[in-house]
Protein backbone atom coordinates (compact mmCIF):
# COMPACT_ATOMS: atom_id res chain seq x y z
CA UNK A 1 0.00 0.00 0.00
CA UNK A 2 1.05 3.58 -0.66
CA UNK A 3 2.79 4.78 2.55
CA UNK A 4 0.61 7.92 2.54
CA UNK A 5 -2.56 5.81 2.58
CA UNK A 6 -1.16 3.59 5.34
CA UNK A 7 -0.22 6.58 7.48
CA UNK A 8 -3.64 8.25 7.06
CA UNK A 9 -5.35 4.98 8.03
CA UNK A 10 -3.09 4.65 11.09
CA UNK A 11 -4.20 8.11 12.18
CA UNK A 12 -7.85 7.87 11.15
CA UNK A 13 -8.36 4.35 12.52
CA UNK A 14 -6.94 5.47 15.87
CA UNK A 15 -9.27 8.47 16.13
CA UNK A 16 -12.24 6.41 14.89
CA UNK A 17 -11.86 3.57 17.39
CA UNK A 18 -11.30 5.97 20.28
CA UNK A 19 -14.31 8.03 19.13
CA UNK A 20 -16.44 4.88 19.06
CA UNK A 21 -15.25 3.81 22.53
CA UNK A 22 -15.74 7.30 23.91
CA UNK A 23 -19.24 7.62 22.47
CA UNK A 24 -20.23 4.49 24.41
CA UNK A 25 -20.05 6.59 27.61
CA UNK A 26 -23.05 8.61 26.48
CA UNK A 27 -25.66 7.96 29.16
CA UNK A 28 -23.23 6.08 31.43
CA UNK A 29 -20.60 8.51 32.77
CA UNK A 30 -20.57 9.13 36.54
CA UNK A 31 -21.69 12.76 36.29
CA UNK A 32 -23.67 14.60 33.63
CA UNK A 33 -20.85 17.01 32.70
CA UNK A 34 -18.45 14.15 31.98
CA UNK A 35 -21.13 12.28 30.08
CA UNK A 36 -21.50 15.28 27.79
CA UNK A 37 -17.75 15.82 27.62
CA UNK A 38 -17.02 12.25 26.48
CA UNK A 39 -19.80 12.36 23.89
CA UNK A 40 -18.56 15.67 22.52
CA UNK A 41 -14.95 14.52 22.37
CA UNK A 42 -16.10 11.42 20.51
CA UNK A 43 -17.69 13.76 17.96
CA UNK A 44 -14.44 15.70 17.52
CA UNK A 45 -12.51 12.47 17.00
CA UNK A 46 -14.97 11.06 14.49
CA UNK A 47 -14.93 14.40 12.63
CA UNK A 48 -11.14 14.20 12.45
CA UNK A 49 -11.45 10.60 11.23
CA UNK A 50 -13.58 11.79 8.34
CA UNK A 51 -10.78 14.15 7.27
CA UNK A 52 -8.08 11.45 7.51
CA UNK A 53 -10.21 9.00 5.50
CA UNK A 54 -10.86 11.61 2.81
CA UNK A 55 -7.11 12.05 2.32
CA UNK A 56 -6.56 8.27 2.38
CA UNK A 57 -9.38 7.59 -0.08
CA UNK A 58 -8.17 10.25 -2.47
CA UNK A 59 -4.55 9.05 -2.35
CA UNK A 60 -5.70 5.48 -2.85
CA UNK A 61 -7.79 6.43 -5.90
CA UNK A 62 -10.08 3.41 -5.82
CA UNK A 63 -13.27 5.37 -5.32
CA UNK A 64 -13.77 4.26 -1.72
CA UNK A 65 -15.58 6.66 0.60
CA UNK A 66 -14.80 7.38 4.26
CA UNK A 67 -17.82 5.22 5.17
CA UNK A 68 -16.42 2.33 3.12
CA UNK A 69 -13.16 2.58 5.05
CA UNK A 70 -14.91 2.69 8.42
CA UNK A 71 -17.50 -0.01 7.88
CA UNK A 72 -16.18 -2.44 5.26
CA UNK A 73 -12.71 -3.37 6.43
CA UNK A 74 -11.86 -6.30 8.68
CA UNK A 75 -9.91 -6.36 11.92
CA UNK A 76 -6.53 -7.08 10.31
CA UNK A 77 -7.06 -4.13 7.95
CA UNK A 78 -7.48 -1.66 10.81
CA UNK A 79 -4.22 0.08 11.70
CA UNK A 80 -5.14 1.85 14.96
CA UNK A 81 -2.86 1.82 17.97
CA UNK A 82 -3.85 -0.93 20.41
CA UNK A 83 -4.28 1.58 23.25
CA UNK A 84 -7.57 2.95 21.92
CA UNK A 85 -9.21 -0.48 21.62
CA UNK A 86 -8.65 -1.28 25.31
CA UNK A 87 -12.01 -1.68 27.01
CA UNK A 88 -14.23 0.85 28.79
CA UNK A 89 -13.61 -1.04 32.04
CA UNK A 90 -14.52 1.90 34.26
CA UNK A 91 -14.23 5.68 34.27
CA UNK A 92 -10.60 5.51 35.47
CA UNK A 93 -9.60 3.32 32.51
CA UNK A 94 -11.51 5.45 30.00
CA UNK A 95 -9.97 8.62 31.35
CA UNK A 96 -6.42 7.26 31.50
CA UNK A 97 -6.75 5.89 27.95
CA UNK A 98 -7.94 9.33 26.83
CA UNK A 99 -5.14 11.17 28.61
CA UNK A 100 -2.34 8.91 27.25
CA UNK A 101 -3.83 9.32 23.77
CA UNK A 102 -4.07 13.12 24.18
CA UNK A 103 -0.47 13.32 25.45
CA UNK A 104 0.60 11.79 22.14
CA UNK A 105 -2.05 13.36 19.91
CA UNK A 106 -1.24 16.99 20.75
CA UNK A 107 2.50 16.90 19.88
CA UNK A 108 1.67 14.72 16.86
CA UNK A 109 -0.82 17.27 15.53
CA UNK A 110 1.60 20.10 16.31
CA UNK A 111 4.27 18.31 14.28
CA UNK A 112 1.82 17.67 11.44
CA UNK A 113 1.09 21.42 11.23
CA UNK A 114 4.50 21.51 9.49
CA UNK A 115 3.70 18.68 7.07
CA UNK A 116 4.77 19.15 3.46
CA UNK A 117 1.39 17.70 2.38
CA UNK A 118 -1.18 20.46 2.06
CA UNK A 119 -4.27 18.48 3.07
CA UNK A 120 -2.51 16.97 6.11
CA UNK A 121 -1.29 20.42 7.14
CA UNK A 122 -4.81 21.87 6.85
CA UNK A 123 -6.23 18.96 8.85
CA UNK A 124 -3.63 19.40 11.59
CA UNK A 125 -4.03 23.16 11.86
CA UNK A 126 -7.74 22.63 12.40
CA UNK A 127 -7.53 19.59 14.69
CA UNK A 128 -4.75 20.90 16.91
CA UNK A 129 -7.08 23.57 18.28
CA UNK A 130 -9.61 20.92 19.33
CA UNK A 131 -6.93 18.64 20.73
CA UNK A 132 -5.65 21.39 23.03
CA UNK A 133 -9.05 21.40 24.70
CA UNK A 134 -9.03 17.59 24.94
CA UNK A 135 -5.82 17.42 26.92
CA UNK A 136 -6.79 20.44 29.03
CA UNK A 137 -9.72 18.39 30.33
CA UNK A 138 -8.11 14.95 30.61
CA UNK A 139 -4.97 16.28 32.32
CA UNK A 140 -7.05 18.20 34.85
CA UNK A 141 -9.08 15.09 35.73
CA UNK A 142 -6.00 12.83 35.96
CA UNK A 143 -4.50 15.21 38.52
CA UNK A 144 -7.73 15.65 40.48
CA UNK A 145 -8.52 11.94 40.68
CA UNK A 146 -4.90 10.78 41.07
CA UNK A 147 -4.22 13.28 43.84
CA UNK A 148 -7.66 12.62 45.27
CA UNK A 149 -9.08 10.10 47.73
CA UNK A 150 -7.39 6.76 48.49
CA UNK A 151 -9.97 5.02 46.36
CA UNK A 152 -9.71 7.35 43.37
CA UNK A 153 -5.92 7.24 43.51
CA UNK A 154 -5.91 3.42 43.60
CA UNK A 155 -8.23 3.27 40.59
CA UNK A 156 -6.15 5.73 38.59
CA UNK A 157 -2.91 3.90 39.42
CA UNK A 158 -4.54 0.60 38.42
CA UNK A 159 -5.59 2.11 35.09
CA UNK A 160 -2.11 3.54 34.49
CA UNK A 161 -0.48 0.17 35.24
CA UNK A 162 -2.86 -1.59 32.86
CA UNK A 163 -2.64 0.91 29.99
CA UNK A 164 0.93 2.23 30.07
CA UNK A 165 2.38 -0.74 28.10
CA UNK A 166 0.02 0.13 25.22
CA UNK A 167 1.17 3.76 24.98
CA UNK A 168 4.24 2.54 23.07
CA UNK A 169 1.98 1.55 20.18
CA UNK A 170 0.96 5.18 19.64
CA UNK A 171 4.56 6.06 18.86
CA UNK A 172 5.52 2.89 16.98
CA UNK A 173 6.88 3.83 13.55
CA UNK A 174 8.37 1.80 10.73
CA UNK A 175 9.37 2.23 7.08
CA UNK A 176 6.00 3.88 6.36
CA UNK A 177 6.81 6.94 8.45
CA UNK A 178 10.49 6.82 7.43
CA UNK A 179 9.51 6.97 3.75
CA UNK A 180 7.14 9.88 4.35
CA UNK A 181 9.77 11.78 6.34
CA UNK A 182 12.25 11.24 3.49
CA UNK A 183 9.63 12.51 1.02
CA UNK A 184 9.03 15.61 3.13
CA UNK A 185 5.40 14.65 3.74
CA UNK A 186 6.04 14.26 7.46
CA UNK A 187 8.38 16.26 9.67
CA UNK A 188 10.69 14.24 11.93
CA UNK A 189 8.62 12.56 14.64
CA UNK A 190 11.28 12.13 17.35
CA UNK A 191 9.99 15.24 19.10
CA UNK A 192 6.58 13.58 19.55
CA UNK A 193 8.03 10.91 21.83
CA UNK A 194 10.08 13.51 23.72
CA UNK A 195 7.00 15.66 24.26
CA UNK A 196 4.92 12.64 25.31
CA UNK A 197 7.50 11.60 27.90
CA UNK A 198 7.80 15.13 29.33
CA UNK A 199 4.02 15.63 29.45
CA UNK A 200 3.24 12.31 31.13
CA UNK A 201 6.12 12.56 33.62
CA UNK A 202 5.04 16.03 34.77
CA UNK A 203 1.34 15.17 34.99
CA UNK A 204 1.78 11.82 36.77
CA UNK A 205 4.04 13.53 39.28
CA UNK A 206 1.34 16.14 40.01
CA UNK A 207 -1.24 13.36 40.20
CA UNK A 208 0.98 11.39 42.67
CA UNK A 209 0.86 8.43 40.28
CA UNK A 210 3.80 6.23 39.41
CA UNK A 211 4.63 5.34 35.81
CA UNK A 212 5.41 1.59 35.65
CA UNK A 213 9.14 1.09 35.30
CA UNK A 214 9.19 -2.49 34.07
CA UNK A 215 9.59 -1.51 30.41
CA UNK A 216 6.78 -3.70 29.15
CA UNK A 217 5.53 -2.48 25.78
CA UNK A 218 2.81 -3.82 23.52
CA UNK A 219 2.92 -2.89 19.84
CA UNK A 220 1.38 -4.23 16.65
CA UNK A 221 -1.78 -2.21 16.00
CA UNK A 222 -0.05 -0.18 13.30
CA UNK A 223 0.40 -3.36 11.25
CA UNK A 224 -3.06 -4.76 11.93
CA UNK A 225 -2.34 -6.89 15.01
CA UNK A 226 -5.02 -6.27 17.63
CA UNK A 227 -6.06 -7.35 21.09
CA UNK A 228 -9.05 -9.50 22.00
CA UNK A 229 -11.37 -6.49 22.32
CA UNK A 230 -11.07 -5.27 18.74
CA UNK A 231 -13.41 -7.75 17.06
CA UNK A 232 -16.24 -6.85 19.41
CA UNK A 233 -15.80 -3.12 18.75
CA UNK A 234 -15.94 -3.64 15.00
CA UNK A 235 -18.91 -6.00 15.28
CA UNK A 236 -20.93 -3.38 17.10
CA UNK A 237 -19.75 -0.47 14.94
CA UNK A 238 -20.16 -2.23 11.57
CA UNK A 239 -23.22 -4.39 12.15
CA UNK A 240 -25.84 -2.08 10.66
CA UNK A 241 -23.98 -1.01 7.49
CA UNK A 242 -22.90 -4.60 6.85
CA UNK A 243 -26.46 -5.85 7.29
CA UNK A 244 -27.87 -3.18 4.99
CA UNK A 245 -24.95 -2.20 2.75
CA UNK A 246 -27.02 -0.19 0.27
CA UNK A 247 -29.05 1.73 2.84
CA UNK A 248 -29.06 5.53 2.44
CA UNK A 249 -30.29 8.26 4.76
CA UNK B 1 -30.53 37.22 -12.93
CA UNK B 2 -27.11 37.21 -11.29
CA UNK B 3 -27.19 39.08 -7.95
CA UNK B 4 -23.87 40.50 -6.78
CA UNK B 5 -21.98 38.76 -3.94
CA UNK B 6 -22.87 41.44 -1.37
CA UNK B 7 -26.57 40.90 -2.00
CA UNK B 8 -26.06 37.15 -1.58
CA UNK B 9 -24.18 37.75 1.67
CA UNK B 10 -27.15 39.77 2.88
CA UNK B 11 -29.43 36.82 2.18
CA UNK B 12 -27.10 34.43 3.95
CA UNK B 13 -27.21 36.78 6.94
CA UNK B 14 -30.75 35.48 7.42
CA UNK B 15 -29.76 31.78 7.44
CA UNK B 16 -29.64 30.72 11.10
CA UNK B 17 -27.03 28.41 12.56
CA UNK B 18 -28.94 25.15 13.19
CA UNK B 19 -27.49 24.66 16.69
CA UNK B 20 -27.67 28.28 17.84
CA UNK B 21 -30.49 29.79 15.75
CA UNK B 22 -30.02 33.20 17.41
CA UNK B 23 -27.08 33.89 15.08
CA UNK B 24 -26.67 33.50 11.34
CA UNK B 25 -24.03 31.63 9.40
CA UNK B 26 -22.57 35.04 8.44
CA UNK B 27 -22.46 36.17 12.09
CA UNK B 28 -20.61 32.94 12.88
CA UNK B 29 -17.91 33.83 10.37
CA UNK B 30 -18.07 30.57 8.45
CA UNK B 31 -19.05 32.03 5.06
CA UNK B 32 -15.60 32.69 3.61
CA UNK B 33 -16.36 33.63 0.04
CA UNK B 34 -19.27 34.18 -2.31
CA UNK B 35 -18.82 34.47 -6.07
CA UNK B 36 -19.91 33.42 -9.52
CA UNK B 37 -18.11 30.82 -11.62
CA UNK B 38 -19.82 31.02 -15.01
CA UNK B 39 -23.48 30.44 -14.23
CA UNK B 40 -22.89 28.75 -10.85
CA UNK B 41 -23.05 30.59 -7.54
CA UNK B 42 -20.21 29.27 -5.37
CA UNK B 43 -20.29 29.68 -1.59
CA UNK B 44 -17.16 28.73 0.37
CA UNK B 45 -17.95 27.58 3.90
CA UNK B 46 -15.46 26.58 6.56
CA UNK B 47 -16.47 24.02 9.21
CA UNK B 48 -16.40 25.10 12.85
CA UNK B 49 -15.37 21.89 14.63
CA UNK B 50 -14.29 18.96 12.42
CA UNK B 51 -17.05 16.79 13.85
CA UNK B 52 -19.77 19.39 14.25
CA UNK B 53 -22.98 17.63 13.22
CA UNK B 54 -24.44 20.97 12.11
CA UNK B 55 -22.00 21.20 9.17
CA UNK B 56 -24.09 19.14 6.75
CA UNK B 57 -27.28 20.90 7.77
CA UNK B 58 -25.64 24.29 7.23
CA UNK B 59 -24.70 23.43 3.64
CA UNK B 60 -28.26 22.27 2.99
CA UNK B 61 -29.79 25.37 4.63
CA UNK B 62 -27.59 27.69 2.54
CA UNK B 63 -28.56 25.90 -0.64
CA UNK B 64 -32.26 25.98 0.27
CA UNK B 65 -32.15 29.70 1.12
CA UNK B 66 -30.51 30.53 -2.22
CA UNK B 67 -32.97 28.37 -4.16
CA UNK B 68 -35.81 30.25 -2.48
CA UNK B 69 -34.25 33.43 -3.93
CA UNK B 70 -34.42 31.95 -7.40
CA UNK B 71 -30.83 30.77 -7.86
CA UNK B 72 -30.69 27.45 -9.72
CA UNK B 73 -27.04 26.51 -9.89
CA UNK B 74 -25.40 26.53 -6.47
CA UNK B 75 -22.25 24.90 -5.20
CA UNK B 76 -21.42 24.97 -1.48
CA UNK B 77 -17.72 24.20 -1.10
CA UNK B 78 -15.87 23.29 2.06
CA UNK B 79 -12.77 25.35 2.70
CA UNK B 80 -10.40 23.99 5.35
CA UNK B 81 -7.68 26.61 5.41
CA UNK B 82 -7.22 28.84 7.29
CA UNK B 83 -9.09 27.01 10.05
CA UNK B 84 -12.15 28.70 11.54
CA UNK B 85 -11.60 30.77 14.65
CA UNK B 86 -14.09 32.29 17.08
CA UNK B 87 -12.30 35.59 16.39
CA UNK B 88 -14.31 35.60 13.14
CA UNK B 89 -17.65 35.86 14.94
CA UNK B 90 -18.93 39.34 14.10
CA UNK B 91 -19.63 42.01 16.74
CA UNK B 92 -23.29 41.72 15.82
CA UNK B 93 -23.07 37.96 16.32
CA UNK B 94 -21.49 38.43 19.75
CA UNK B 95 -24.32 40.72 20.82
CA UNK B 96 -26.91 38.22 19.54
CA UNK B 97 -25.24 35.42 21.52
CA UNK B 98 -25.31 37.54 24.66
CA UNK B 99 -28.99 38.43 24.16
CA UNK B 100 -29.71 34.71 23.68
CA UNK B 101 -28.07 33.88 27.03
CA UNK B 102 -24.71 32.57 25.78
CA UNK B 103 -21.56 34.38 26.89
CA UNK B 104 -19.58 35.15 23.70
CA UNK B 105 -15.95 34.02 23.30
CA UNK B 106 -13.09 36.25 24.23
CA UNK B 107 -11.24 37.75 21.29
CA UNK B 108 -7.69 36.64 20.54
CA UNK B 109 -8.41 32.94 20.44
CA UNK B 110 -4.70 32.33 19.91
CA UNK B 111 -3.98 33.52 23.44
CA UNK B 112 -6.62 31.59 25.35
CA UNK B 113 -7.76 28.71 23.14
CA UNK B 114 -7.22 25.27 24.55
CA UNK B 115 -7.18 26.35 28.16
CA UNK B 116 -10.47 27.06 29.82
CA UNK B 117 -8.65 28.38 32.88
CA UNK B 118 -7.27 31.22 30.73
CA UNK B 119 -10.78 32.39 29.90
CA UNK B 120 -13.35 34.22 31.96
CA UNK B 121 -16.93 35.01 31.07
CA UNK B 122 -19.32 37.64 32.36
CA UNK B 123 -22.77 36.35 33.28
CA UNK B 124 -25.10 36.98 30.30
CA UNK B 125 -28.04 37.34 32.69
CA UNK B 126 -26.86 39.78 35.36
CA UNK B 127 -23.54 40.97 33.92
CA UNK B 128 -21.49 39.94 36.94
CA UNK B 129 -17.90 38.93 36.30
CA UNK B 130 -17.91 36.81 39.44
CA UNK B 131 -18.35 33.51 37.59
CA UNK B 132 -16.76 30.06 37.57
CA UNK B 133 -16.34 27.27 35.04
CA UNK B 134 -18.21 24.06 35.90
CA UNK B 135 -17.26 21.89 32.94
CA UNK B 136 -15.16 22.26 29.80
CA UNK B 137 -17.96 20.91 27.62
CA UNK B 138 -21.50 22.11 27.31
CA UNK B 139 -24.57 21.35 25.24
CA UNK B 140 -22.40 21.37 22.11
CA UNK B 141 -18.62 20.87 21.62
CA UNK B 142 -18.14 24.60 21.14
CA UNK B 143 -19.48 25.58 24.57
CA UNK B 144 -18.44 25.23 28.21
CA UNK B 145 -20.67 25.35 31.27
CA UNK B 146 -20.30 28.23 33.69
CA UNK B 147 -22.10 29.37 36.83
CA UNK B 148 -22.63 32.91 38.12
CA UNK B 149 -21.66 33.24 41.77
CA UNK B 150 -23.89 36.31 42.19
CA UNK B 151 -27.23 35.47 40.56
CA UNK B 152 -26.48 31.71 40.94
CA UNK B 153 -27.68 30.91 37.43
CA UNK B 154 -25.79 28.46 35.19
CA UNK B 155 -25.00 29.58 31.64
CA UNK B 156 -23.21 28.50 28.47
CA UNK B 157 -19.92 30.09 27.40
CA UNK B 158 -18.83 29.92 23.76
CA UNK B 159 -15.19 28.83 24.06
CA UNK B 160 -12.48 30.70 22.17
CA UNK B 161 -10.83 28.44 19.60
UniProtKB/TrEMBL annotation, chain A:
<dbReference type="InterPro" id="IPR052703">
    <property type="entry name" value="Aromatic_CoA_ox/epox"/>
</dbReference>
<dbReference type="InterPro" id="IPR007814">
    <property type="entry name" value="PaaA_PaaC"/>
</dbReference>
<dbReference type="InterPro" id="IPR012347">
    <property type="entry name" value="Ferritin-like"/>
</dbReference>
<dbReference type="Pfam" id="PF05138">
    <property type="entry name" value="PaaA_PaaC"/>
</dbReference>
<dbReference type="GO" id="GO:0010124">
    <property type="term" value="P:phenylacetate catabolic process"/>
</dbReference>
<dbReference type="InterPro" id="IPR011882">
    <property type="entry name" value="PaaC"/>
</dbReference>
<protein>
    <submittedName>
        <fullName>1,2-phenylacetyl-CoA epoxidase, subunit C</fullName>
    </submittedName>
</protein>
<dbReference type="InterPro" id="IPR009078">
    <property type="entry name" value="Ferritin-like_SF"/>
</dbReference>
<dbReference type="GO" id="GO:0005829">
    <property type="term" value="C:cytosol"/>
</dbReference>
Automatic annotation (TrEMBL), chain B:
<protein>
    <submittedName>
        <fullName>Putative 1,2-phenylacetyl-CoA epoxidase, subunit D</fullName>
    </submittedName>
</protein>
<dbReference type="InterPro" id="IPR056572">
    <property type="entry name" value="Zn_ribbon_PaaD"/>
</dbReference>
<dbReference type="Pfam" id="PF01883">
    <property type="entry name" value="FeS_assembly_P"/>
</dbReference>
<dbReference type="Pfam" id="PF23451">
    <property type="entry name" value="Zn_ribbon_PaaD"/>
</dbReference>
<dbReference type="InterPro" id="IPR011883">
    <property type="entry name" value="PaaD-like"/>
</dbReference>
<dbReference type="InterPro" id="IPR002744">
    <property type="entry name" value="MIP18-like"/>
</dbReference>
<feature type="domain" description="PaaD zinc beta ribbon">
    <location>
        <begin position="117"/>
        <end position="159"/>
    </location>
</feature>
<dbReference type="InterPro" id="IPR034904">
    <property type="entry name" value="FSCA_dom_sf"/>
</dbReference>
<dbReference type="InterPro" id="IPR052339">
    <property type="entry name" value="Fe-S_Maturation_MIP18"/>
</dbReference>
<feature type="domain" description="MIP18 family-like">
    <location>
        <begin position="6"/>
        <end position="68"/>
    </location>
</feature>
Amino acid sequence: MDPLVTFCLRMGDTTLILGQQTAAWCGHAPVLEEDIAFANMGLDLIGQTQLWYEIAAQAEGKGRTPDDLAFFRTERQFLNAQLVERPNTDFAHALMRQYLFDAWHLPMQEALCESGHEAIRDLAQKSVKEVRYHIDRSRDLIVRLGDGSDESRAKMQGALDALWPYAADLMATDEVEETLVAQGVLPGLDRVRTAFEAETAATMSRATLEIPGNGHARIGGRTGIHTETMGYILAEMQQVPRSFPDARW
Amino acid sequence: MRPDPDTVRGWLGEVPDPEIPAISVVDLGIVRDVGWENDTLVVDVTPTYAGCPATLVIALDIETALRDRGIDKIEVRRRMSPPWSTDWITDEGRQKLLDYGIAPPQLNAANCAGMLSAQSAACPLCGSENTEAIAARGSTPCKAQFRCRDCREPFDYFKAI
